[in-house]
Amino acid sequence: MTTFLSILMRDLRLALRQLSDATLVVLFFVLCASMFPFAVGPEPNLLARIAPGVIAVSAALASLLSLERLFLTDYEDGNLELLALSPTPLELIVLAKVVVHWCTTGLPLIAAAPLIALLYRMDAAGMPVLLAALTLATPVLSFIGAIGAALVLGARRGGVLLSLLMLPLYVPILIFTVSAIDADLAGLSARPHLLLLGALLLGVLPLAPWACSWALRQALE
Amino acid sequence: MTLFEGRDLTCHRGLRQVFTGLDFALPAGGVLLLTGPNGSGKSTLLRIMAGLLTPVAGALFWGDEKVTEDPEAHRGRVHYLGHLDAVKPVLSAAENLAFWGGLRGRPNADVAQALEHFGLGHLAKVPGRMLSAGQKRRLALARLLVSPAELWLLDEPSVGLDDASLDNLGAAIARHRSDGGRVAAATHVPLPVEDSEELTLDDFIGGPEMELAW
To answer: Residue A180: is its pLDDT beyond 90?
Structure first.
């Protein structure tokens, strides 16, 4: 437990001292989302309709952008060897790192999402469900993405490979996030979609750290 | 007395056989110096000893027990110092060291004393990116002192060290041995240690290159 906390504190401290990394992710999210009106035209009804989809896709891309560095810096400077040789299970260490990744990218994305929704004039009634869906979806993005980040460790052009591997896996998260918001705006219950997102989160919570630590040990061989 | 032993170890890197039929034994208080030309497998053997690499054949034993039977216990008794110093550029020297202590269950370790031993006391608050290569190496060595581990695996610990720091390392190793600790070190230059055993890896190079299977 002390090891878990010391990794949590160190990664948070690293993120706070390199605040530009987290800021870049949020800026990318906002910029990416504001590209769509230029491409699809400024028709207000259309924009309000596609807002949930734009937010979900932009959040997935922004999260992907920051994932490459999740294990890469520790791998390159030799800290990963020390983490792998710690008496604490590597799964627990991975869990701490992913939690910090979510705190430094997922949380700011959730905070920035209402801004995009406003920009697209999405019905404000859908805002609580939008925030609830993102709160469940962004940790799933971090956990699934972490598996990819661990798998591509040591590969040339790992970032591109990571996108190729991860984007198809992000599809279910996009579907459930958007359908939760759409259902709510259409006057239906968002509950089943949110429950499915919750189930995804509960599924990856134990699976991702286990898969990551296996991939990390392979990368160190 | 428990021996740390390797029996009949074989290791391949890619398609090349690095060594085969290698045995070693390291008693408590002992020092094993790995020597041999570049590429003879010194670092590879240290990584195998640490449990980062799995040998193709053969096994490691701690006393009578196979190391692979309880890898977590083995990780608890190993300090591994690789080629990389693992110093985070934005953390200060003391913060780096405190984290490494916490990683091994010693969050309240005596960081100041470890820094002082390697002459880094005045640099405690300096961020890692401002340290020279030699200072980073000394910081990595200070890691050995913040948390106890029975087996030190040192991969060319003397790289970048000045004479005074080399003596400090010798003193740290001597104290570690008097507490019953053991050291395996790969090195090209003589380390300041007494009555050590030497293992020359050149003698274990196996047959010709393996043939390509395709």
So the answer is: yes
Over chain B, what is the mean pLDDT? 87
Instruction: Average the pLDDT over each of A157-161, B23-27, B59-63 and give the range with the smallest value.
Output: A157-161
The nearest alpha carbon in chain A to B54 belongs to A221
Q: How far apart are CA B10 and CA B41, in angstroms?
A: 11
Q: What is the C-alpha to C-alpha distance for residues A35 and A78, in angstroms, rounded to an integer?
A: 39
Q: pLDDT tens for residues A2-36?
A: 788 888 888 998 888 888 888 999 999 999 999 99
Other Cβ atoms closer than 10 A to A191: 12
Which helix or strand (DSSP H or E) is residue B22 part of? strand B16-27
What pLDDT was estimated at residue B211?
Answer: 53
Mutate to test the interface with B, among A7, A85, A94, A97 (most CBs of B within 10 A): A85
Architecture of domain B3-204: 3-Layer(aba) Sandwich (3.40)
Nearest chain A Cα distance for residue B134, angstroms:
16
Partner residue opposite A77 with nearest CB, options B86, B104, B105: B86
With contact defined as beta carbons under 8 Å apart, do A141 and A170 qualify?
yes
Domain boundaries, chain A: 2-220
